[in-house]
């Protein structure tokens, strides 16, 4: 970090700035496709890194989370601080919205304590110019002692200047701190800094620590105090200075320092602003708001926008979804055709039913996700999302949620996966986690086939619509109750302030919207895909492996052995064969591709049902029976629920196999009759509640793991929801039994 | 009538009567004498002159009340006294005792015009951002500032006394849409207060309430070209003086 490093071949660059300052589009413009998006360990905050080359040097870029300040109050701010202190980037690029200079430059002033090599990047320069504002850039450079460049991130304008400025900053000596915060604060900081330096803190950090100690940042203060000695003396020095300032000014330290920073920025702007923006620079945007956020029209318009988003996502998305499904069908058949006709090869079934079927079943959601993210990114970039949050915050807040939670939750009616991913628009970690955790309670589209099968099977026509409505209502009520509960228990904590900026409406560029939507879709594919592949394979083994062969072995052991054991030809261990119309391969016309039609369909189905009973899944279903019997379920339902874990709609297909119906879907009357014969209406109610609440599907678990960066939250969600589902079904079934 | 203008001594008496009436409804000659540390005998002539000027009236023999005219005069005198005291304490930063004594000595000898202009200077230094900046650099100038600055200001009585027009502070959320207000105080603590300050909601900033959500909460404000939304609970931390 010293003076030597600026000649190194690799330069680390950090982008810092307010949320909505356009950091991410600048980051994309700088690094192009050469980037990696991950998570900071243990938090839901994204860590974006990338790199670019310029004049033979490699520049590694980190996009810090957007913050308004560098306190230790939120994970985003803590991370930004940590990244700047621990990784000590050679150059910090302060990205600033040029149309909101005053507030943005306050963060720049704070950053100046932290680093000696900075570039000030005035983004959204086109808008600033349009508003009539004019700055003396050269003077600004001189006053701040850093290169200043103007850019338009989403149009990739000014990138050349930015890259050069970064190179310039990287190769120059650290400039002295040009911050002038007033005699009183400067003197106090100087004295605290001396005390901090006395504790052996290197000079480039001492300045920052002095600021934090003086403003009485709880994290710094307690850390210093614990170390005792010279560290404790620094805390005492800070307390002394603080008391002195507070007594002399009549302001508390937070207010006083804020006044000083704003004072510095005010003074700076007074010198460099050649022409102020016109008063009516936002007039058009304000007129639009008069209509869109109108007290009467606001909510109807919002609902219409929501409707449009979901129509696009699920109705328009259906076409490419069908194509994908057909594609996987073809792929399954093509791959299946590589084996000899009628072959019972285990590997074939694994690849066709397990891998292609399982991964394909999740991949078909891709069009939905891309379309949803296109819509959401568009709404976000135009600035409407902030208005939407403003409109519905009251309702959401009552349940401990945030205005921005609304859209992800409603998206959950379509599919939990894009819903969970849409929570990214929530700034605060606790808000985001709460929303994600309750999201599977919104009855998703994949559960609709289950309701469509069960409700007509057990309810007379007049009850059907209310029953369907009720199941959705139960989900919503539970989601809200859980949100409230979470905010009072494990996610308790001070509420994040709803101090939200409402930027003027902007017309986003097609490229930035598409770019970001595709980026997110790709992440879904890459990360969720690998895990889903693994779970698919495990599920396949559970459903296809006769339990007696591997009795006493875990499924992991079965997985290891699979390739070898497939060559051992035992007559009794045939799996779901080509005659068995699996979910993917079947395609409705089994006869055409199935030459082994010598056996009658009925016998074939009976065999499949018997195999299911004997499979590991069937075995597990039977093992589960004592546990689920109090809910009114038998092993058949238990086995089908394993299918529901793979994908909720899998429940229906699984029941079809168990009941030896062959290919079934939610419109199958035969299956309904069978179900009606075997189970009471009370069992059906208990079953629907259980399927609504318990066991989020494996794709949800995978995406939760990806989005939260660990196994903790997916497991909390999985077991929490399953336990609740169990309890609700138990109570309903047992109480119902005594009543009726 | 030989006197049409209040003398310094009469002003002092009027002030005393006002304070006694405020606390006890009526002022007795005996109490006035005690408050001003003079003999009771010297109070009565002064009272007679005040009565002649229409400032006070006798309810009974020893009991005195203020007339509306007297009350108005007394208030003005008191306000002047307060402003002078604060001027000495806050601008010149003398000790509270000295400030009190100097204010008493000065309040009667200043002309109305001089007093008026001094008040304006005081307001400029305490309220106008430019003045505040000037004042803070004045105070932090090491050549003027003595080392013993800490013992000075222990009062934080806000700004309500300065605003002669009698505005009252309220939450930003209580402004009407389109109405502007000047921030007088940002209370609260921890992350919420910090965020408000970080967004530039500082004392003396002008805020306009732009609109309110259809459900009545949150609110939408405008400040310095920026637009923000706040929940009412957060907005209640921001006190403003309606413009």
Structure explained in plain terms:
The complex is a heterodimer of chains A (740) and B (243). Chain A is built from 33 helices and 10 strands. Chain A has 740 residues and is an alpha/beta fold. Among the domains of chain A are: 168 residues, 3-Layer(aba) Sandwich (Rossmann fold); 68 residues; 194 residues, no CATH class. In chain A, the strands form 2 sheets. A 7-stranded mixed beta sheet of chain A has the order 2-3-4-1-5-6-8, with helices on both faces. Chain A has a two-stranded antiparallel sheet with strand order 7-9. By secondary structure, chain B is α+β, with helices and mostly antiparallel strands. Chain B has 2 domains: 110 residues, Winged helix-like DNA-binding domain superfamily/Winged helix DNA-binding domain (Arc Repressor Mutant, subunit A), CATH 1.10.10; 74 residues, Ferrous iron transport protein A (FeoA) (SH3 type barrels), CATH 2.30.30. Helices cover 47% and strands 17% of the residues of chain B. Chain B is built from 9 helices and 9 strands. A 6-stranded antiparallel beta sheet of chain B has the order 4-9-5-6-7-8. A 3-stranded antiparallel beta sheet of chain B has the order 1-3-2. In chain B, helix 4 packs across helix 6. Chain B is elongated, with a radius of gyration of 23 Å. About 9% of the residues of chain B have low confidence. The interface between A and B is large, with 56 and 48 residues.
The CA-CA distance between the termini of chain A, in Å, is: 76 Å
The structural domain count of chain B equals 2
Which sequence of SSEs, written as H and E, runs from N to C of chain B? Answer: HEHHEEHHHHEEHEEEHE
User: In this structure, how is the largest beta sheet of chain A organized?
Assistant: 7 strands, mixed
Look at the structure and give the mean pLDDT of chain A.
81
Oligomer: heterodimer
What are the key terms here?
heterodimer, A: 740 residues, alpha/beta, Rossmann fold, two-stranded antiparallel ribbon, 10 strands, 62% helix, disordered N terminus, B: 243 residues, alpha+beta, Arc Repressor Mutant, subunit A, SH3 type barrels, 9 strands, 17% strand, elongated
